[in-house]
Backbone:
């Protein structure tokens, strides 16, 4: 008799991403000890040796709760018992701008980046599920950040030269919990995951259930499906914008970035605003604080110019229209 259907689903998802990695590659599971990442770790430990890959695991001790070091040790022992080698923990200091969630995420990824490079890992697997994707889409909708934000989390991405993969985006959280039960694994429930001080927790326990009650079941799946379609659209528009940026960029002494206005105003708005955002970011405006309101104001320098002098941008920058060019540089 085969494995439990939930176990089979998680293993299949992991097997698919392993197939695209080099033979004999080391693949790491980022494991918090929660149901999603624990099911991921169990599936990786099972599948990797069967396809000629090495499997290891890393847990991050954020130090945000009493006994977090003991919890990390427990996760390491669990990963080792599954057969993950190496299996280790990394303690990080959580501080910096953007609030505790953002600071913890930055510290976690920095530690994973360093570990993956040190161990020459081909990829790091993350345990985000379809439910996480739905929550991300709703949070993006609330921010009004456009198609890129609504496209949710990518199935794969690179940062600092490290490949990250999310094989479980097509599975729901109930499946990973059932998989843990079937594999005899005891997941840890992080108390932060029920703390309503966090916006994501409110979405998880209040907004999504309310939508399910009002609209019927399947809301999370529909949101995740929408994210996949919007990501395809956003990728295509970003590619068009990158080509247009290359064609329109022109040298200009004293400014970080200059764009020729001829041709810029003819672009579709969806492409043009992306070009303007690229120009501002290249000039040094921080992407995290460069908002749609800033890009819209710069766009008016192109399409609705009435002699306005400039637009101030985050990072101490300014966009100026002058001599048939749009110029970006320090104030």
Residues:
């Amino acid at each position: 008799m085969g494995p439990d259907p939930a176990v089979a689903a998680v293993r299949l998802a992991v097997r698919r991403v392993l197939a695209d990695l080099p033979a004999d590659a080391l693949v790491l599971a980022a494991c918090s000890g929660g149901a999603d990442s624990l099911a991921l770790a169990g599936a990786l430990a099972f599948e990797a040796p069967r396809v000629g890959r090495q499997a290891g695991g890393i847990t991050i001790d954020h130090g945000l709760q009493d006994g977090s070091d003991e919890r990390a040790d427990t996760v390491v022992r669990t990963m080792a018992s599954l057969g993950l080698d190496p299996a280790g923990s990394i303690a990080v200091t959580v501080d910096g701008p953007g609030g505790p969630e953002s600071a913890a995420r930055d510290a976690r990824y920095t530690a994973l980046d360093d570990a993956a490079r040190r161990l020459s890992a081909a990829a790091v697997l993350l345990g985000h599920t379809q439910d996480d994707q739905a929550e991300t889409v709703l949070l993006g909708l609330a921010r009004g950040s456009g198609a890129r934000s609504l496209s949710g989390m990518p199935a794969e991405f690179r940062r600092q030269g490290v490949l990250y993969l999310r094989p479980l985006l097509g599975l729901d959280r109930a499946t990973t919990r059932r998989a843990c039960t079937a594999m005899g694994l005891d997941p840890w429930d992080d108390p932060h995951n029920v703390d309503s001080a966090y916006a994501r927790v409110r979405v998880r326990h209040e907004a999504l259930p309310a939508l399910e009650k009002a609209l019927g079941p399947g809301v999370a799946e529909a949101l995740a499906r929408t994210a996949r379609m919007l990501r395809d659209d956003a990728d295509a528009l970003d590619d068009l914008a990158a080509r247009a940026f290359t064609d329109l960029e022109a040298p200009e002494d004293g400014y970080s970035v200059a764009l020729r206005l001829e041709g810029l105003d003819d672009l579709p708005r969806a492409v043009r605003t992306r070009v303007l955002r690229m120009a501002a970011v290249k000039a040094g405006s921080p992407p995290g604080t460069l908002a749609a309101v800033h890009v819209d104001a710069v766009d008016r320098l192109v399409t609705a110019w009435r002699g306005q002098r400039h637009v101030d941008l985050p990072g101490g920058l300014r966009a100026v229209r002058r001599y048939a060019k749009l110029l970006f540089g320090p104030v």
